[in-house]
């Protein structure tokens, strides 16, 4: 489940919403419980996303030893979990270190409705059914088929389990303890969200967005780090996957002409952005963009770009003629004029 999306208890991401019970009232009650009288637990203090970094670093980091084979399987399972997309490399490795293997037998109950939340679970293999007591009947409300994750709601809201999850045919899960989940997933993501919001306030094209719209953009952004000289966008590539904001570091734009001669067009630093031209025009990438030194970018996938940046597209489209002029100048070996942070691939 991606950060910023509506939280649905024990819900597989691809499940049909019509088959899922309503949970808005449940979430409202959980928020009220947190506000007026949170249930006490050994981890209750861990829910403050504003806790100082020094205190965060002082917390014990849990490490469960794994073989290389186990870690490789774990990485493969976790790469499918959208909840982890906003973690940086160090945070992701801490999560991997803390997770432990949980083998299920057919019929095992992994979590039980009403119990305290102890772990978050990532499915490596197996089928799992989700049950909830509704009007006195224990009803099946969802199922997982060899992928997905569950158990986050009780950890996020320090609340009882909202449903029961049982193994159908046995399988393998990877579990993450409450302490690590809160310290990294909840708190670190909250800090990263605020950082993104502050950054986006200073991006010129986003000045047309309302504050709540920028918040949605911040929720949808994924971090990506690139080493020195790493190609981020390749000229001619037809795979139009991401739109990029430069958050730290520097990128350079290089055009390769018909004679395979490479010509640098410009460079961008923090506050610049690129990748929108190909998405707007639905054409191959116009230039190659690579990192200069270690560079960190915030990225929006194509769907998020289309959904969230609609109000900014008119401004972006105005730059199309400028892009064409820059490319024409470079191709004709005329020096391109210095460009603003708005000009990009």
Q: Could you explain the architecture of this structure?
A:
With 345 residues, the protein is of the alpha+beta class. The protein folds into two domains: 17-187, Jelly Rolls (Sandwich); 201-331, Jelly Rolls (Sandwich). The protein has eleven helices and 14 strands. The protein has helices at 24-37, 53-58, 68-78, 89-98, 152-157, 178-200, 211-220, 276-281, 302-308, 313-318, 320-331; strands spanning 100-104, 109-111, 119-125, 127-134, 137-145, 149-150, 164-167, 171-177, 222-226, 231-233, 242-256, 262-269, 273-274, 288-301. Strands 9, 10, 11, 12, 13 and 14 form a six-stranded antiparallel beta sheet that branches. A four-stranded antiparallel beta sheet has the order 1-8-3-6. A four-stranded antiparallel beta sheet has the order 2-7-4-5, with no helix packed on it. Helix 4 (89-98) packs antiparallel against helix 6 (178-200) and helix 6 (178-200) crosses helix 7 (211-220). The longest helix is centred in the middle third of the chain and has 23 residues, at 178-200. The protein is elongated. The relative contact order is 0.12. Mean pLDDT is 79; it is low at 1-47 and 334-344.
């Amino acid at each position: 489940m991606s950060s910023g999306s509506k939280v649905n208890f024990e819900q597989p991401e691809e499940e049909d919403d019509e088959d899922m019970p309503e949970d808005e009232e449940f979430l409202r009650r959980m928020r009220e419980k947190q506000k007026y009288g949170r249930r006490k637990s050994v981890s209750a203090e861990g829910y403050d996303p504003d806790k100082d970094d020094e205190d965060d670093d002082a917390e014990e980091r849990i490490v469960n030893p794994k073989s290389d084979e186990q870690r490789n399987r774990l990485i493969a399972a976790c790469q499918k979990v959208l909840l982890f997309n906003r973690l940086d490399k160090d945070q992701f490795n801490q999560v991997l270190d803390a997770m432990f293997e949980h083998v299920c037998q057919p019929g095992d109950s992994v979590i039980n409705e009403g119990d305290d939340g102890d772990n978050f679970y990532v499915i490596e293999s197996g089928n799992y059914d989700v049950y909830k007591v509704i009007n006195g009947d224990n009803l099946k409300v969802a199922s997982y088929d060899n992928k997905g994750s569950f158990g986050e709601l009780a950890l996020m809201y320090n609340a009882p389990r909202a449903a029961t999850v049982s193994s159908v045919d046995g399988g393998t899960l990877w579990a993450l303890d409450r302490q690590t989940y809160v310290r990294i997933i909840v708190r670190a993501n909250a800090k990263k969200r605020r950082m993104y919001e502050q950054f986006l306030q200073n991006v010129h094209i986003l000045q047309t967005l309302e504050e709540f719209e920028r918040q949605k953009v911040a929720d949808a952004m994924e971090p990506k780090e690139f080493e020195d000289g790493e190609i981020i966008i390749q000229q001619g590539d037809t795979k139009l996957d991401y739109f990029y904001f430069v958050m730290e570091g520097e990128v350079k734009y290089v055009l390769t002409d018909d004679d395979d001669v490479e010509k640098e067009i410009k460079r961008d630093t923090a506050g610049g952005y690129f990748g929108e031209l190909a998405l707007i025009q639905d054409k191959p990438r116009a230039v190659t963009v690579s990192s200069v030194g270690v560079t960190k970018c915030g990225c929006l996938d194509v769907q998020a770009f289309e959904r969230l940046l609609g109000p900014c597209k008119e401004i972006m489209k105005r730059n199309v003629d400028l892009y064409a002029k820059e490319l024409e100048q470079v191709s004709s070996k005329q020096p391109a004029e210095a460009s603003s942070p708005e000009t990009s691939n």
